[in-house]
Amino acid sequence: MEKEVLVIGGGLAGSEAAYYLASRGIKTTLVEMKPKKFTPAHESACYGELVCSNSLKSNDAYGNACGLLKEEMRRLGSMIIEAADATKVPAGAALAVDREKFSAYITEKLQNCPNLTLLSEEVKTLPELEKEGGRYAIIATGPLTAEDLSRDILEKTGGGLHFYDASAPIVSADSVDMRYAFTGDRYGKGTGDYINCPMNKEEYYAFVDALLSAERTHLHDFEKGEIFEGCMPVEVMASRGRDTLRFGTLKPVGLEYEDGKRAYAVLQLRKENNEGTTYNLVGFQTNLKFPEQKRVFSMIPALQNAEFLRYGVMHRNTYIQSPDVLNRDFSFKNNRRMFFAGQITGVEGYVESAASGLLAAIHITDEILKRPTHVFDERTMCGALETHISTPTKDFQPMNANFGILTPMSVRIRDKKERYRAMAERALAVIDEMNGQGVFDQSQTAKKEK
Fold first, then answer.
1. What average pLDDT does range 353-380 have in this prediction?
2. CA 20 to 30 Å from 302, out of 165, 178, 211, 354?
């Protein structure tokens, strides 16, 4: 009997998983409800749509945890990282992408992949799977799972959790007033890819006061304290103290101009595309009403005449209590033929979500092709994320990749940079050893099991 895999959800995790499986000769069906139905945060019909930001964070594999995770994924044959590398835009040390080209690249790869069937329909309940034999399924419906399916998932996993996060506005490049801005990367690292919008002391405090008094949408949702720290709305950060922003999102350090002059606060704008025609407001996730975003953000001198191409939006992210219901390989404890992947599992971030889809697909491929089981231990970022979603805890929370979740070095290294480099080199050596026979190489199409 030919083994089949049903992947539900065409975001980063689902796209990654479906492509990995199909490109290895496994018959796969990817079901995505777009374009027949959209969530409140999505607008593109393409697969792998990015919502909150166009940045996949640092690309430094030896000094940044997310950079290390990306490099592990490259070596494991990640299509998502391939797409990011192919559609990247200048962003200093970060890997940022042209969102439209990124999603288009992923969509084309999926459409042209043998053994892969693409369906556009809404799935309202989890599939019925035999516990022995038959097909597998990966549930990768993301943090914005449609209501019917979300309700079914939460019922069958014993309840779930949720928090709220936000996305930042995007402005047209030619509407930025460069008389009040300058280009350059923090500490001169990069090729001058950011537009920096400085404010003096009076301008900064006037901006903060306006931000704090601006009208927000669905304020009652925030009062529950469910906002994820990694996507904290700028107005919520400002409410923690009038100087919070200039020591965080608007910090001016490393952005000197005019013979070493430093502004009191600086907003950075990052390219959304290679053409440099659109920029997003870095770290300016927000839940202000659209007219208020225009009014308040235009108080920043460089943005006084800004054309807002997209306003920031707020949405709910849902994730299950993974340690109670998932095994380390992302399989469902009640039925090991059903897997979960993406932010719904409690990994947080674009790259982490894609990584979970890749890992779930690798584990299913091991079973279907009867190849040796690949165990990712905590020396690797992939293994550390698997440990996070499967380790029992009283306070399970979404987790980004970070060096703190890796196994410590056997020899203590005091210097943080040297320690991170050593941990990264060790992690990549483990991945290379696992990949010694090329089992992760997508060019090697596996024979389908009959």
1. 94
2. 165
